[in-house]
Amino acid sequence: MPSKTPHTNGNEPVENGINGTKDVEMKDDAPNPLKGGKGKKLKEGEEEMTVVVPPSKGSKLSAPPQKDTDGDVAMDGEAAGEDDGAVKVDPVTQAISGTWNCCSSAVCSILSANIRSLLADIKSNFPLLERAVTLFDARFTLRALRSISSIRKRLTPDILAQVITDTYPSNSPAARSLLVALDRENATFAKPSSTEMEIDSESKATKNGKKEQKEIIPEVDIFLGILTQIYYLDNKITQKGVVFSAHLAERIHSLNRRTLDSLSARVYFYYSMFAEQMHPLPPSPASPVVSLRPALLSALRTAVLRKDVDTQSTVIVLLLRNYLSTSHITQADLLVTHTKFPDNASNNQVARYLYYLGRIRAIQLRYTEAQQQLTAATRKAPSSPSAAGFSQSATKLKLVVELLMGDIPERATFRVASMERALEPYLQLVQAVRVGLLGEFESTIKQHSETFRRDGTYTLILRLRQNVIKTGIRMMSLSYSRISLRDICIRLKLESEESAEYIVAKAIRDGVIEASLDRERGFMKSKEVGDVYATREPGEAFHERIRACLGLHDESVKAMRFPMNQHRLELKNAQEAREREREMAKEIQDGDLDEDDLGGEYEGM
């Protein structure tokens, strides 16, 4: 074991630390003293240290070591290093979040790994956008948009600023506008030195080790703008979000690129979400959603002219939502009448459109159409847990419409695990309507009025009072062959026998019950129930099921995806086969080719 040889130069413990010096001689000297060897390199190192560091060993040991602010020993003529116990701070982490006061190196390494992973996830979408532009295929853009759900929970302004500075050159106006929106306009555009932060698809290395700056496509600008919108939306920065969204929509309109269709639809979606959150909130006529309508209508006209299916379907849904939020039912109906929803729109937009259309039809007392639209919306609703809110809203409105039609929903609807708790007030409502108890119906409305108002079904539920009375009369007509109007008035808690007489007469005229009314004696006499299969009811129910199955088949055929231009390839192959057939037939006629030369069987078109 060497006695004091490793301490002769005073630099050995620092060289063994984390942040070593770049001096070649010091790196060559380091391993041999640690191993305790006394080879040639050690002697050469001692000779060089006598020249470079004149003070003797005693003077070095007697002088107290000078420390910097980080607690490391300051070396003469070298940058201060770190000893073995110091924490290694990642340069990317320092650039993003400043100084972390971590209690251990393990915590810092985990946080640094998470940041590197998030930066890599965001940057991995840029090649997808480039492929979407090169191949003119929107599926790659949709893949990039689907990754936002896993990114948005970890978004911060520093992360976005780091992505911008790593992607754009320092003189890019798009990068400056994004940094100003994030309040990070002073961010430096220095590239990270770590090779782990580099993505091969973003840039190519030259022979000199420098990167060649690639031209950033506008799709990357809009994608980062959407991430900025999401950050504003999640952090309730509404005012800035509206201004930034308006600027982003104007830039998309000026670019006029078909590869921006899917991205522009998402921009207008978040633009509308910001307007709905600004005060005064809807349904106030002074709400900002009213001032947003001209911009949405202009975007709809432009999308129709450009045949932009994604933006067209999204803006139509947003306009319907806008009109319904302020109870402008007539304007919403006119929009539906004068516009045609795209047939090849995405499934999510179709489900939203059917839901809003069903709500409009329910308010207009067109319950049969509303029930059909809402049934289709619930069937098209995504099955993922993130879409449970939409399924619950559509199911609630569908239940109320079915009650207004005089039907009783199936109990299995209320037993679905994802809807059991949300549909509990509606279960009590259905039970009161099914039995025909007016008192329980009114108490249920009073108890859950806030829930019904929040769901937007309160006004429709108030219409159910007449249905409850009709249901009660139907139940009594089935239970009694003859019942007095006074008993009907007592059971239904009506004001007088005259009102009971009017209600019974209207139920008989509407076909709710099969009975006759005796006004002189003051009672209702029920007729004998005949064979239900002798009526048209079973045939109509069977016809409805067949029509639903045929509609599902047609939608499935429309949703099938086929390779692009495959029919052209088949026509080309068929034409070449016909030409070969003509050539061979001509050679056979000329005698240049006989049946033996054909090699057996001959297959032609």
TrEMBL record:
User: Does this UniProt record's set of keywords contain Glycoprotein?
Assistant: no
Q: Which residues form the PCI domain?
A: 351-531
What GO cellular component is one of the record's annotations? proteasome regulatory particle, lid subcomplex
- Does the entry feature the keyword Electron transport, yes or no? no
* Swiss-Prot/TrEMBL GO biological process terms: regulation of protein catabolic process; ubiquitin-dependent protein catabolic process
> Per the record, which residues fall in region Disordered?
1-84, 575-605
- UniProt lists compositionally biased (Acidic residues) regions at 71-84, 590-605
PROSITE patterns linked to this entry: PCI (PS50250)
The record's listing under Pfam families reads: PCI (PF01399), Rpn3_C (PF08375), TPR_PSMD3_N (PF25573)
GO terms assigned for molecular function: enzyme regulator activity
Q: Which UniProt keywords apply?
A: Proteasome
Where are stretches of biased composition, namely Polar residues?
A: 1-11
- Family annotation (InterPro entries): CSN3, PCI_dom, PSMD3_C, TPR_PSMD3_N, WH_DNA-bd_sf
UniProt similarity note: Belongs to the proteasome subunit S3 family.
- This chain's protein is named PCI domain-containing protein
